[in-house]
Specification:
- By secondary structure, the chain is mainly β.
- It has one domain.
- It is built from no helices and six strands.
- It has a three-stranded antiparallel β-sheet, with no helix packed on it.
- A hairpin with a 5-residue loop joins strand 4 and strand 5.
């Protein structure tokens, strides 16, 4: 999912069980956070402060800080 300002792309990594934030302009990884087996759908809250991740392996939703990747 792309941030509203189009500066950050959030990507689910099913093979590693993580989510990555990529700086679109610089083409560099900002952070990568483990979320568990099977991260699938991603969504940003309206303020762009939290990334919500549907994790199929645990039938749960994980909320991450969009700037740092912390839970």
């Amino acid at each position: 999912v792309l941030s509203e300002d189009e500066g950050t792309l959030y990507v689910a990594n099913p093979d590693s069980g993580s989510v990555s934030a990529v700086d679109v302009g610089a083409g560099v990884l900002r952070w990568e956070a483990p979320v568990g087996q099977g991260p699938a759908a991603l969504s940003l809250d309206p303020a762009g402060e939290r990334v919500y991740v549907a994790v199929t392996g645990s039938d749960s939703v994980v909320a991450l800080d969009a700037r740092r990747g912390a839970r």
